[in-house]
């Protein structure tokens, strides 16, 4: 089956008892044994909803299939999925983290992990040679494209140099439609299903995909043992969203490309970050490892930030991304607000940087909105 077909069918066959084409929401915390014998001989798949439930099992199968992995694991949020991966680490383990990492991941590593004596090193991995001999790192943490500067990392080259480390790739921005890191040698793929997979800004969830059986057993134990699992309804919503992922991603990509071109030609815009633009440093690499350039665009405004944001009528000033509706935010006041200012500026996240999650509306309406706001700025 091809991607589009899997997105609609895998892990979502009609119910064998009722024929329901769409899986029902199995809103039950517990499952009755048919008899004592079934309990004695462990002959029942579903027992208690934290351990497993039909909606979660379906979603996990879908995500594994789309990421070309053998296993999927669903969580209550992207951060819960990330925390489960980080729980694989032991005191004195060393982690190499790409510099442009998601704010929540940075906070987890800097505010919570130090008490477990996890050593962290932030490296600019745009030159994989910079990884050097990885000096005994147990984990390498990567995002590509990154947030908010849309940097592209060479996943296959980093995988070649990972040594003993587990290579973890947060694939939230690219989605499995545009990029499959497991095929490039990554060990674990992370998703915030809150974003493109869910796609409608109506749920919070996370997921992992992987192929190694031993690693899966360890992560499964963490999933059910630490218990940050999603409810049946959120799994159902994520699965419903995934059915249209290919259609939405195509539109996100074409809209974002047009918007990036529009911004690049505007006099009040001093810089545009979008891997689909030939002048962006990650352009060639993105062409090799992705099947499209994604729906995220960032740019530098030369003008009044408040007047710009006040003049917008279609773009919503809100955090998050990946929904059908276009969202816009200044990372300095939103996703990167709590990064020390000096560190933030050193990473190139200026006060005038604006991040756009381009939705699936008509692109002419989106451009008209930006045009008006730029005129007002
Ligand atoms: C949103 C996001 C997360 C965190 O996901 P939540 O569902 O908000 O917990 C992690 N990584 C990336 C790249 C994200 O955009």
Tell me the layout of helices and strands.
Elements: H1 3-9, H2 36-40, H3 54-66, E1 71-75, H4 78-86, E2 94-98, H5 103-112, E3 119-123, E4 139-143, H6 155-160, E5 166-170, H7 175-178, E6 188-192, E7 206-210, H8 213-226, H9 232-242, H10 245-264, E8 269-273, H11 283-289, E9 296-301, H12 305-311, E10 316-317, E11 327-329, H13 341-346, E12 353-357, H14 363-376
Parallel strand pairs: 2-3, 2-4, 4-5, 5-6, 10-11
Antiparallel strand pairs: 1-7, 6-7, 8-9, 9-12, 11-12
Helix pairs in contact: 3-9, 12-14
Task: Give a verbal description of the structure.
The longest helix is centred in the last third of the chain and has 20 residues, at 245-264. Helix 3 (54-66) runs parallel beside helix 9. The mean pLDDT is 95. The protein contains 14 helices and twelve strands. The protein starts with a helix and ends with a helix. It has helices at residues 3-9, 36-40, 54-66, 78-86, 103-112, 155-160, 175-178, 213-226, 232-242, 245-264, 283-289, 305-311, 341-346, 363-376, and strands spanning 71-75, 94-98, 119-123, 139-143, 166-170, 188-192, 206-210, 269-273, 296-301, 316-317, 327-329, 353-357. Strand 4 (139-143), helix 6 and strand 5 form a beta-alpha-beta unit. With 377 residues, it is α/β, with parallel strands linked by helices. The radius of gyration is 21 Å and the shape is globular. The structure holds pyridoxal-5'-phosphate. Pyridoxal-5'-phosphate is lined by residues 77-79, 102, 104, 143, 147, 170, 172-173, 192, 194-195, 204, 206.
Instruction: Please state roughly what percent of the residues sit in beta strands, choosing from under 5%, 5-15%, 15-25%, 25-35%, 35-45% or over 45%.
Output: 5-15%
| Number of strand elements | 12
Terminus-to-terminus distance: 49 Å
Largest sheet descriptor: 7 strands, mixed
Rg calc: 21 Å
The small molecules bound here are:
pyridoxal-5'-phosphate
Structural class designation? alpha/beta
- What shape does the CA trace take? globular
Mean pLDDT: 95
Order of helices and strands: HHHEHEHEEHEHEEHHHEHEHEEHEH
């Amino acid at each position: 089956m091809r991607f589009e077909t899997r997105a609609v069918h895998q892990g979502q066959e009609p119910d064998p008892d009722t024929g329901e084409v769409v899986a029902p929401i199995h809103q039950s915390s517990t499952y009755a044994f048919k008899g004592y014998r079934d309990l004695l001989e462990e002959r029942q798949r579903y027992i208690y909803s934290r351990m497993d439930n039909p909606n979660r099992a379906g979603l996990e199968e879908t995500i594994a299939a789309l990421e070309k992995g053998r296993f999927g694991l669903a969580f209550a949020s992207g951060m819960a999925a990330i925390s489960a991966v980080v729980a694989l680490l032991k005191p004195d383990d060393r982690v190499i983290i790409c510099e442009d990492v998601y704010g929540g991941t940075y906070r987890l590593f800097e505010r919570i992990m130090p008490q477990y004596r996890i050593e962290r090193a932030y490296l600019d991995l745009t030159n994989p040679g910079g990884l050097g001999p990885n000096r005994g790192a147990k984990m390498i943490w990567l995002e590509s494209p990154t947030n908010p500067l849309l940097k592209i990392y060479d996943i296959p080259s980093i995988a070649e140099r990972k040594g003993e480390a587990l290579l973890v790739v947060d694939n939230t921005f690219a989605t499995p439609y545009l990029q499959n890191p497991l095929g490039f040698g990554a060990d674990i793929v992370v998703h915030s299903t809150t974003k493109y997979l869910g796609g409608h800004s109506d749920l919070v969830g996370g997921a992992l995909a992987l192929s190694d059986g031993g690693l899966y057993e360890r992560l499964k134990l963490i999933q059910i043992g630490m218990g940050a699992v999603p409810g049946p309804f959120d799994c159902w919503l994520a699965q419903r969203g995934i059915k249209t992922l290919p259609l939405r991603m195509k539109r996100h990509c074409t809209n974002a490309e047009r918007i990036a071109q529009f911004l690049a030609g505007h006099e009040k815009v001093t810089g545009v970050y979008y891997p689909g633009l030939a002048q962006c440093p990650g352009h060639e690499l993105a062409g090799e490892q992705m099947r499209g350039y994604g729906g995220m665009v960032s740019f530098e405004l030369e003008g009044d930030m408040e007047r710009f944001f006040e003049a917008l009528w279609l773009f919503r000033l809100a955090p998050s991304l990946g929904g059908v509706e276009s969202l816009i935010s200044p990372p300095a006041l939103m996703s990167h607000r709590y990064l020390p200012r000096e560190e933030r500026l050193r990473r190139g996240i200026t006060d005038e940087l604006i991040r756009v999650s381009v939705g699936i509306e008509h692109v002419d309406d989106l451009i008209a909105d930006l045009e008006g706001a730029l005129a007002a700025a």
